Amino acid sequence: MRIVSAEVVVTSPGRNFVTLRITTEDGLSGLGDATLNGRELAVRAYLVEHVVPLLIGRDASAIEDTWQYLYRGAYWRRGPVTMAAIAAVDTALWDVKAKAAGMPLYQLLGGACRVGALAYGHASGRDLPELFDSIRAHLERGYRAIRVQTGVPGLGVVYGVAASVGGERYDYEPARRTALPVEEEWDTRAYLRHVPGVFEAVRAEFGPELPLLHDGHHRMTPVQAARLGKSLEPYDLFWLEDATPGEDQAALRLIRQHTTTPLAIGEVFNSVHDYQGLITERLIDYVRSAVTHTGGVTGMRRLLDFAGVYGIKSGIHGPTDISPVGMAAALHLDLAVHNFGIQEHMEHTARTLEVFRTSFTFADGLLHPSDAPGLGVELDDEMAGAFPYEAAYLPVNRLRDGTVHDW
Ligand code: GCO
Ligand code: MG
User: Which residues belong to any copy of the Mandelate racemase/muconate lactonizing enzyme C-terminal domain (predicted)?
Assistant: First the structure.
């Protein structure tokens, strides 16, 4: 089953997506997501200039060999651009293989371990009334686990808080179509003073059972994160995510020594090696990588199997900058791995779903990838062409004195 073509489609139905389509001599085609928020064209160039020429004529069924060929063969390993490009190839080849077998991908990965993947939605509010409305709206839509992000008194726009609440959508999209990145203002001490009271109020209003998550988005020092983890213990979080910047892995050791709040990290990681110490020392509870940024189904499976040996579970990254193709790949893995934890879910816009025809479903708080052969997602080229690329940037965050801070 030789590969005869590989094309990269960049489309922007409200936000940018990079998709690879691989077609074989038998006329089968597969899709892979290569979207890297705010740096989309770098992955496009990597694929078009350096990967597509190597794919033509290769055996589409040799997935592991192709993964190693692109990873070890490039000499320059890891990094988000390389690993997103490898992810797109890998995911597209799994899509092809599953279509050739006439099976949904999760069957090829070993079959379903559960009826669906528990999903968490993103609730947020600038103040408590807005936040409560947002949580209620998510519960009405069927969510059984909820991420809680809150405004902070005295600060303007805060990460993870929807610009308007009460309308049709509550999701938060950090990339904005501006000539330069938007600059936000941040004060960690104000945040630390405010957040425990918010969780106390949410527990008082919604009771002890609802799983609650929170994302610190890399903004704290290890000591600050340890303090937040401790102060949130009474509110029984499902996880505290990205408490400190991911590249400083030793920081997690300090946080772990001070709190029993479960920890999740890894959305900016791109290989199993980024987690080696975190997993073997059991410093985290959930791995947060995206299939799209971690070398695809093959890279993610390797990571999850390694994590599983240490009792660490999955929490696959699923914001709207993961395309429906990347999301579908995550859902097939969610069903097939034993150490599933939870799946992040931000619904894509109606316009995005006109470009990407999905078959996955959300009901009673659970996501299911569907039983369509392959990933179960098709790309409508005509619709994709109607939405050309538009530059968009993630924000830059500054402390009150102007110092650039982690965002
Ligand atoms: C999350 C993430 C996202 C990122 C985004 C950056 O937990 O979903 O923090 O919201 O900010 O993916 O591109
Ligand atoms: Mg996050």
Answer: 129-262
Fold for the domain defined by 3-104 = Enolase-like; domain 1 (3.30.390)
397 touches 186 (CB < 8 A): yes
pTM as predicted: 0.97
One-letter-per-residue 3-state SS of 6-72? EEEEEECCCCCEEEEEEEECCCCEEEEECCCCCCHHHHHHHHHHHHHHHHCCCECCCHHHHHHHHHC
Q: For the residues of 317-363, what is the DSSP string, one character each? A: --STTS-HHHHHHHHHHHHH-TT--EEE--PPPHHHHHHEEE--EEE
Pocket test residue of 159, 176, 267 for ligand 1, highest count of atoms within 8 A of CB: 267
DSSP assigned state of 122: E
Distance CA 315, CA 288 (A): 5
In tens, the pLDDT along 340-389 reads 999 999 999 999 999 999 999 999 999 999 999 999 999 999 999 999 99
Question: 3-41 pLDDT, tens per residue?
Answer: 999 999 999 999 999 999 999 999 999 999 999 999 999
List the domain boundaries for the chain.
3-104, 108-373
The pLDDT-based confidence of 162 (bands split at 50, 70, 90) is confident
- Give CA torsion, residues 294, 296, 299, 301, to 10 deg: 120
Burial class of 243 by CB neighbour count within 10 A (0 to 12, 13 to 18, 19+): buried
Distance of CA 15 to the CA centre of its chain: 15
Give, in words, the CATH class of 108-373: alpha beta
Topology alike, domains 3-104 and 108-373: no
Mutate to test the pocket of ligand 1, among 218, 317, 322, 407 (most ligand atoms within 8 A of CB): 317
ipTM given for this complex: 0.98
Kindly list the catalytic residues. 159, 217
pLDDT tens digits, residue range 177-217?
889 999 999 999 999 999 999 999 999 999 999 999 999 99
Question: Which is the closest atom of ligand 1 to the Cα of 317?
Answer: 8
- Strand 17-24 relative to strand 3-11, pairing: antiparallel
